[in-house]
Design brief:
Layout (H helix, E strand, L loop, with lengths): L1 H26 L7 E2 L5 E2 L7 H30 L3 H38 L2 H38 L14 H14 L12 H17 L1
Antiparallel strand pairs: 1-2
């Protein structure tokens, strides 16, 4: 069983890296990008990006988040061996958050494609009107998905601190929330240099760390 959990943790780690790659294809917009629209959820440089980038990004997110689910299964079951409630909460929130991540990423990519099509045949006003309608409908599940992904972060931190996971205590820092804060900090320090990287990949890299923690616990 430990061998299977180790393999699943490895796949979870790889899945997080695939999500990072998908993030880059979607969100590496380059210099001169501007936030447009009523809610500032439109990126001007989408118009310059090839359509295939968004399709590939969705595919990578789908495969990546599916593999991340295996990592959550491994980690959750390892925790559940001594702390069942904590372990199953990690597993359940991890699954739900991963599938929410697929929805969020897909909708972001679809918004970019809609914007490109609307700009070719209309105007920014038309594109903004369409995307605002979509944005209002997905805002609640979008926010809920991000919040739910924080739940396994908390349960894993608790599992490390209470000894349910036999890994070094510094591993409490290996999670999407901490990595997101690091990415935002880089962007705040130098918005021009760090406009895209490393910020856009950091939460996904944090997801990969759950797979790494699973491997370390079995090592």
């Amino acid at each position: 069983m430990d061998k299977m959990y180790f393999v699943f943790s490895c796949l979870g780690f790889v899945g997080g890296l695939l999500c990072c790659t998908g993030d880059i294809f979607f969100d590496l917009k380059g210099r001169g990008n501007k936030k447009l629209g009523t809610s500032k959820n439109i990126d001007s440089n989408w118009i310059k990006m090839a359509d295939w980038r968004f399709g590939l990004s969705i595919a990578l997110a789908l495969v990546g988040d599916s593999l991340v689910c295996l990592g959550f299964y491994s980690l959750g079951m390892q925790i559940a061996a001594t702390h069942p409630v904590l372990g199953y909460l990690t597993l359940g929130f991890g699954y739900f958050g991963s599938f929410a991540g697929i929805l969020i990423h897909t909708m972001c990519c679809v918004q970019a494609l809609i914007y490109k099509g609307a700009m070719k045949r209309g105007s920014l006003e038309i594109a903004d009107d369409i995307l605002e309608k979509i944005y209002r409908q997905i805002a609640v599940p979008f926010l809920a998905g991000y919040m739910i992904l924080l739940a396994p972060t908390i349960t894993v931190i608790v599992a490390i601190l209470n000894g349910a996971l036999n890994v070094p205590k510094f591993c409490v820092l290996l999670n999407p929330l901490v990595f997101l804060i690091v990415g935002i900090s880089f962007r705040k320090i130098n918005p021009k240099t760090f406009q895209d990287l490393p910020g856009i990949i950091m939460p996904s890299l944090g997801l990969a760390m759950f797979g790494l923690i699973g491997m370390l616990n079995l090592g």
